Amino acid sequence: MELIFYITAAITLISTIMVITRHNPVHALLYLVISLLSLSVIFFLLGAPFAALLEIIIYAGAIMVLFIFVIMLLNLGKETAIQEKEWLKPKVWIGPAVLSVILFAELFYLIGIPHQTSPVLQTVDSKVVAISLFRPYLIGVELAAMLLMAGVVGAAHIGQHKKLVFHRFLKEEEKT
Amino acid sequence: MMNTTLQYILMIVMVLFVLTTIAAWLIWLERRMLAVWQNRSGPNRAGPFGLFIVVADTIKLFFKEDWIPPFADKTIFVIAPAIVAATVLMSFVVIPFAPGILIADLDIGLLFFLAMSSLGVYSIVLGGWASNNKYSLLGALRGASQMISYEVFMGLSLMGVVMLSGSFRLSDIVLAQKDCWFIVTQPVAFVVFLIAGIAETHRLPFDIPEAESELVAGFHSEYSGMKFGMFFIGEYLGVTLISAMLVTLFFGGWLGPAFLPPLVWFILKTFVFILFFILLRASLPRPRYDQLMSYGWKILLPVALLNLLITGGIVLMMTK
Q1: In chain B, which residues touch A (CB < 8 A)?
Q2: What is the pLDDT of residues B3-37, one digit of tens each?
Q3: Residues B124/B219, Cβ–Cβ less than 8 Å
Q4: pTM of the predicted model over 0.90
Q5: Residue whose C-alpha is closest to residue B85's, from B109, B120, B54
Q6: What stretches pass through the bilayer (chain B) (predicted)?
Q7: How many independent structural domains does chain A possess?
């Protein structure tokens, strides 16, 4: 089990690094999908199969498809790849690299401290998730629903417009 | 320990073999049945009833030139057809064919099916994009929006079934139908799932990403040889998958009168639905793209939500 965890963790890290360093946006997004998939495997290993599958259904299966959809519509060609290449000069890396090394050192230190109690893995199935969502955290669910509703209404408002019908022979006429 | 592992592997190999064989012969079945319904003869030369046309087709696919267009994004172009076959085959992992004949009885089997079918979109999107061809790109765009939208209703329509059976585990769902199949208690969910399933497998009449009369062949215009074959097999596997899911969720899975073994019942019921899919292809014209989308969001979504609400209310009343 531990070996599988380390392998998936390595895949997650490598694919996330690849997301940042790719010049072609679609390739970068594909690595992001792989990173999400491996994250869901980690969720599964940690005993949260419900969260793992939601990660795949929502993030990898819906949101990332929409991202790729938009990128496809933008039709970014070779020029963007060249532009990206120019932006990602080695100099740019120094700042983030130093900061993440500090974070890594902190993490290393924290892992080194001996634990009082070793965490016990407990599988959280869908029933447990549902009970905790709809009992103690009900307010949170309702607030999230309201927020999403606001988003939907906003999107509908932006998307709504009068359709103009252009035709070669007919006159322009308005159609709602 | 060793024995169970061996059994597992044997089961996986068996299911894989049976499925790919079925998918291949479905091509023959589809052409024959279309011919019957359209008053033609269909393929009838090679072998008895033209059965060997599948062998000829397969040999042809293997020996065709496997051409990768120079303007394509090569890696993604190669990966895309594998995704559809892989995701559909992965979905079969959770389907209980008969008591004891299933690969993994996951706690969250239904969600696993939904996850795999949502990943299947990538094959269309990436295949169309990597081809670097306007027809393919249009097909990919249509496919992406169609499949993402219909996934929503697919998931929502199934939640009524989950409520009634109280589990995401597919074998539990089958056993919950012992007294009454869910087609009786959840007819609305069945219709929504059926329509969404056709859209998910992008079969006719919803084959808008392909639409050969307007988009050449849509997202797989540039594919040839075995790569095209993968898309082709993936489509037939998808039809088998949706039929099997319909049977499992709404028609009692392997349950049936005892004079036939459970596995035979399952196969028979699935076969009926596969025939229904073929009949749809023979009889219905393709809707326009915007018609499909507005139909989905304006009719199927409210219907699925209403069904969910009413089912929830009734379940609440029954338990009190």
Answers
A1: 73, 76, 106-108, 111-112, 114-115, 118-119, 121-122, 125-126, 129, 137, 140-141, 144-145, 148, 151, 155, 168
A2: 778 888 888 888 888 888 888 888 888 888 888 88
A3: yes
A4: no
A5: B120
A6: 6-26, 75-98, 110-130, 150-168, 180-199, 228-251, 263-283, 295-318
A7: 1
